[in-house]
Amino acid sequence: xxxxxxxxxxxxxxxxxxxxxxxxxxxxxxxxxxxxxxxxxxxxxxxxxxxxxxxxxxxxxxxxxxxxxxxxxxxxxxxxxxxxxxxxxxxxxxxxxxxxxxxxxxxxxxxxxxxxxxxxxxxxxxxxxxxxxxx
Length: 135
Prior knowledge:
Order of helices and strands: HEEEEEEHEEEH
Strand order of the largest sheet: 2-1-6
Shape: elongated
Largest sheet: 3 strands, antiparallel
Distance between the termini: 28 Å
Number of domains: 1
Number of helices: 3
Number of strands: 9
Structural class: alpha+beta
Radius of gyration: 16 Å
Helix content: 25-40%
């Protein structure tokens, strides 16, 4: 799983979230660091309105929060979601002695992103892809 700082970088780069069952998120407020939640029809459900998306906390008695605007949530994409977002530029994932390397094709050249875990390698590759698409 990527860390919250990397998730913030992805959001700042323009990655937008459409909440779906199984997604992980954090509440991006002081004092909530490290607290992760999972969207589930049983407990945390996205409600879509003309004014925006609200995450409803259904029947959570230990939690003093009924709902949260999606703008206050920090999506923490899973490894498979990050890989999918790379689209056709993704070439492969390889194990290295220190972790993992993601290979992308950008502007006709291969680019490599190495991190300790695969999800972080995918995330940094996606940040590079987003930056290349707006340049």
